[in-house]
Amino acid sequence: MQIEVINLEKSFGNTKALKGVSFTVKHNSITALLGPNGAGKTTAINILTGLLKQDRGEIFYDKTPFTPKNNKIKKLIGVVPQHNNVDRDLTVVENWLVHSILYGINKEKRINKINEMLHFTGLSKHKDKKAGKLSGGMKRRLVIGRALLHEPKILFLDEPTVGLDPATRRHLWDFIKSINIKLGCTIILTTHYIEEAETLSNYVYFIDNGKIIKEGEPESLKNEVGKYTLEIFKDNKTVEEYFNSKKEALERLNSLNGVYSAKIREVNLEDVYLKLTGRKIEI
Ligand SMILES: Nc1ncnc2c1ncn2[C@@H]1O[C@H](COP(=O)(O)OP(=O)(O)OP(=O)(O)O)[C@@H](O)[C@H]1O
Question: In this protein, which residues make up the domain named ABC transporter (predicted)?
Answer without folding.
Answer: 3-234
